[in-house]
Amino acid sequence: MTDQAAGGLRPGRPEDKPSPQGTDPGALPPPLPDQAARTRIVEDLETCFLVEAGAGSGKTHSLVSRMVSLIASGRAHPSQMAAITFTRKAAAELRERFQIRLEAAAAAETDPVRRARLQAGVAALDQAFLGTIHAFCARLLRERPVEAGLDPAFEELTEDEEERGLRAAWEAYLEEVRQEAPQRLEALRALGVEPQELYGLFTTLHRYADVEPVTADRPRPELAPVREALARFVAEMERLLPATEPPKGWDPLQTRLRRLRQEVQLLPEDDDAALIQVLTHFEARPSVTKNRWPDPDTAEAALAAFQAFAQTVAGPALHAWREFLHRPLIDFVRPAIARAAWQRHEAGQVSFQDLLLKTAQLLRDQPEVRRSLGARYTHLLVDEFQDTDPVQAEVLFLLTGEPVEERDWRQLTPRPGSLFLVGDPKQSIYRFRRADIDVYQQVKELLVRGGGEVLQLTANFRSVQPLIEWVNETFRRSFPERGDGVQPGYAPLVAVRPGRERAPVRVLEVPPVFRHTQDGIAEEDSARVAAWIAWACQGGLELERTPEERARGLDGRPRPGDFLLLHWDRAKLLAYAEALEARGIPAEVTGAKGYAGAWEVAAFLDLLEALADPADPVQLLAVLRGPLFGLSDQALYELGERVGGRWALLLDRSLDELPEPGRAALAQLQHWLRLTEALPPQAALEGILEETGLLPWTAALPAGASRAGNLLKLVEVARSLGGGRSFPRLVQALGEVVRQQELEAGSLFPGRPQAVRVMNLHRAKGLEAPVVILAYPAGAREHPPTFHIRREGEAARGFFPVWGPPASPFGRPQLLALPPDWEAAAAREARYLEAEDLRLLYVAATRARELLVISRYPASPERSPWHRLEVAGALDHAPTVDLPKEGGEAAPVRVRVEPAQIAAACEATQEALARARIPTTIHLAASDLEGRGPAAEGLAAWDGEAVPPGLEEVAAAQEEAEPGGRRWGRAFHRLVELLIREGRLAPWRAAPQEGTSPGRGMDGLPEEALARYVAQEAGLAQEEGPDPAAVLVGWVQPFLASALGRRVAQAQRVEVEVPLALAVPAGELAAVTGGVIGLGGPGAGGDGTPWLPPETAPDTPAVIHGQADLLFREGDGWVLVDFKTDRLPAGKAGPLVARYGPQLRLYATAWERVTGEPVKERWLYLVRAGQAYPVP
Q1: Could you read off the pLDDT of 113-123 as tens digits, one per residue?
Q2: Residue 211's beta-bridge partner residues?
């Protein structure tokens, strides 16, 4: 009796897969066509295997079976196994399956020794590693951080955090170049390239840090002949162009030529970069409208001349110039890659790619570490191996291969039975995520060379036989019989489920749309898809339920969760969800594109940006006119008339005299603005979102779950940005993340089971449904290669063209530079991309269990990404689906809901909201923690530091009626910051002498100029009162001339506008803040102190954040200065010192923790009084 048989396991037949219909439940199942391979998986534990498992063949089941057999046979303990999956979700499912199978095997086992092993395996289940390759590498690095050269407490960055870090590193690199080597920027601009245009190249090289860019020195092309030829061409076109504009306007070629003529006239002499920019016009393909030319022959002659010049002159010149530019641009960006890596290392951070690269380096360079870790993890099992990263493959072979002294992983031989890989090369669809079919083929060859074997699993447990026959017939003709390096060979699937005799593939035809627009096609197709699904759910379609499904009470009538709706890409997903929900059919969208363009995200972000910068009149008008307030043009006109066009002042003024409805809208904005000042930034953002009512409003709309989920995702992003930012800076960072990163749409109820799933193909990997619809027969377009990587030989080499940002919001990236031999590399990459498109079709076609429905657009079939199936003849015999009669209308799906269910749902919702209100992290603004109660004895009578002679009248004037408000305070802070950063404190190193002007800087430049710039930047306008610049200068002069100002000028180091954060447990807040805030619930303090809710746990992390205005270091410590524009209450400073004392003490504590150096003094500088007061 074999080990497997003793364990009571059937080799390879997935128990969680449906049984064939029509069989006797008591009879033994028929043998599977691949039974021998499945038996070897669980019995031959001393051989390394690469299992090529077709769609629906039970890949994960095979991997779990192998794991159970390893434990039952005694060949491995759970702590010695690592099972690696593609996603965290897949890892969770794998863990669940492994536990269930292990417990079942232990219960069924009759051999006492094997049963004891299995029971021990159940007890030690948590010691097995089951997770992603990145998580596995993180575990290895944490076990050996010193040898890997890492901080033992290193932090793993999320993708969003990594992107923000890259942006910061890039900006820091450019600033370093500006300061230390400005000639490099000048040389770059002389070539017609702005440094910011190279950020895309920077991120690409960072993503492929293990790849060496292919570069070559190319001579600077001689462009004088090109300039002369261009002048002749323009003169010739001038002769052909009509003298006056045609009645119907200029056609595209005429428009292009006229613009070309203007640019040539303005072309500077000997400016090659400007000439190259002009030549890019010839990369366009303008059309002609012959009746807008003097005669058809002239039109044809002009078009022929344009095309000839493009081919013979402009094209070669552009190509030569771009090859010449390539190496200088690569060389400019390389140091930024190193800087980003250094920045992460210094911060103790690692990105996902760092985890792989550093693990590979650790194993490659440290034989003893490799030997130790190899003995620790004796068996590696990898699911979805076809999508492996090249560095992942290296890590796997380094950890399992011998000899350990060999550094090249391609020369290693895995230890017997140590490596078990499962994948389907026909489902390799993640090339854009570094998956490489070449590496898969290479690993396959290495495994066989080292004594391993390749097994084929062909039994399909998912789809009915008629559908499998269609899949085989379709893709056998498209895939090669044997792999050719770019495409794997096709292994036909064998259906286990017989299925009834009916057409497994059907077609849904979309009628012609005016001008064949993508929006129009999506609208028509989504309406028909929704109508058909509604009809099917009403009993129009009957499904073949498996015995397991019928045992769960499911009959043949479809439910929304039985449908999976797939798009080729992420465009238009929401349109289909809206069409479904308009018919009462719930839809769940995953991975929709266009997050930043979603109107609900844009509307709320506009509101936040208006509150972050109330002086911006354009932003304010956008909010008033937008969906939140919807003021009409007439209402805005009347409002503008009443305020005299001074929109920038509206949120700082009284609203009593303003007309409705503008007054109500502005009052609401003023209220929200006060929230941004009274609450921590993140709390203010969430409070404003709640008060807008956007969440319930959007949730009630079609596709409401996605739209409301988008808003919640915005809150999540804001939380991920962390504390320590002011509200304006939080909003700025939030806007940058939303607009610069391609975020995916969210969902209010992710993963709800009874909803039509709507997603793009890449998200459907591993999923299935009884009915799959390949929708949106539009948007197919060629994607030319953007780079190519060759992995022949020891080092990977990358052909990386340099792409700049699009010239227009809807344009394509601009090609700036080309690597050598790009044409051959691009042609090779195009073959890989075309092969992957076929594999995407295979994935799409193999998701369905019973029925595959494909949308067609006969009026222009080439627009459809599914058109390749038509060309292959796969749809020739597919019948058209039956749409409901009466114009395609169908009744919404109705579900009876009892009152008790509604009450229970409401109660559950309230409980969930109550739990959500319990803070998991508390963020507090230091500016909110004001001291209360009587001032400390002696403070109320303290007069502060004397104003320097000659400036008493200036200081006194500031205490009189003068403009005030938030913008004035920000402007003063900004002016002080600029004075310090620009080195303008030098003239104040000594008290002003008679005859000198206290308002002039180190170069004799008037400080009024800086003040005027700051006033303009802050939106301060002169009305009836004094000039804003004069006010600011009047405020800053006493400080600069004071003893405190002179100390700043003499300081060893000065820091301005410093973000600070102090983290403490909530239970220690009262002690840290001097009783200003703590636990105990509202009113616990007895004097209005903002105590935290009583349900707050004492160990809840609390982060107090703020921004110190000024810190400077002298020999024996730091001095902290905080500026306030408050008026002196009753002429005494004591109440203000008591009020702001907690804030300054917290800043001092935080700074001491950051620097490890003492803060010896704390000063409160009252701008209006022109005096400084010490804070005890």
Answers
A1: 999 999 999 99
A2: none
Q: Return phi, psi of residue 442, to 5°.
A: -65, -45
By CB atoms closer than 10 A (0-12, 13-18, 19+), residue 640 is middle
Dig out the tokens for 416 from the structure: 């017997």
pLDDT over threshold 80, residue 361: yes
Give per-residue pLDDT as tens, 148-159.
999 999 999 988
Closest CA to 853 of 892, 882, 814, 826: 882
d(CA 823, CA 966): 59
More confident residue, 370 or 90: 370
What is the rounded distance in angstroms from the CA atom of residue 397 to the CA atom of residue 376? 15
CA-based nearest residue to 350, from 545, 205, 209: 209
Residue 523 has what pLDDT?
Answer: 94
Mean pLDDT of 118-142: 94
508 bridge partner residues: 855
Determine which helix (DSSP H) or strand (DSSP E) holds 457, and give its type and residue range.
strand 453-457
User: Each residue of 11-31: pLDDT tens digit?
Assistant: 444 444 444 444 444 455 678
- pLDDT score recorded for residue 1079: 59
Name the nearest CA neighbour of 1064 among 1055, 1056, 1072: 1072
- Residue with structure tokens 């002659």? 301
Phi, psi of 213 (to 5 degrees): -65, 140
Whole-angstrom distance, CA of residue 599 vs CA of residue 714: 13
To the nearest 10 degrees (0 to 180), the angle between helices 1007-1017 and 966-981 is: 140
CA 100, distance to chain mean position in Å, is: 35
Peptide bond into 892 cis (omega under 30): no
Average pLDDT over residues 55-64: 93
Q: Which two tokens stand for residue 837?
A: 């498109």
Report the number of secondary-structure helices (H) and strands (E) in the chain: 42, 29
Residues in a beta bridge with 130: 83
Going by the DSSP 8-state scheme, the letter that residue 149 receives in this structure is: T
Which amino acid, residue 1023?
A: E
Q: Both tokens of residue 868? A: 């390749």
Distance CA 289, CA 251 (A): 6
Rg (CA), the chain: 35
From 453-462, 673-682, 883-892, 1057-1066, the region with the lowest mean pLDDT: 883-892
φ, ψ for residue 855 (rounded to 5)?
A: -75, 135
Phi and psi at residue 825, to the nearest 5°? -65, -40
Gap between the Cα atoms of 910 and 904, Å rounded: 10
Tokens 């377009």 locate to 781
- Please give the backbone phi and psi of residue 548, each rounded to the nearest 5 degrees, phi first: -65, -40
Q: Cα(1001)–Cα(985) distance, rounded to whole angstroms?
A: 7
| 737 sits in which H/E element | helix 727-740
Report the chain's mean pLDDT, rounded to a whole number. 83
* Region 183-198 average pLDDT: 94
d(CA 1029, CA 1013): 8
pLDDT for 163 = 87
Task: Give me 929's structure tokens.
Answer: 């923690």
Ranked by mean pLDDT, the top range of 160-174, 221-235, 603-617, 901-915 is: 221-235
Q: What is the pLDDT of residue 1049?
A: 84
> Which whole-number Å values give the CA distances from 482 to 491, 829, 1088, in the listed order?
9, 20, 79
Cβ(1170)–Cβ(947) under 8 Å? yes
CA distance 702 to 250: 42
pLDDT tens digits, 932-954: 443 333 343 334 444 334 334 43
pLDDT at 244 (0 to 100): 93
The residues that bridge with 155 in the sheet, in sequence order, are 349
Both tokens assigned to 774: 């390949």
pLDDT at res. 560:
92
H or E, element range at 661: none
Residue 587's DSSP bridge partners are 756
Contact predicate 981/1056, CB 8 Å: yes
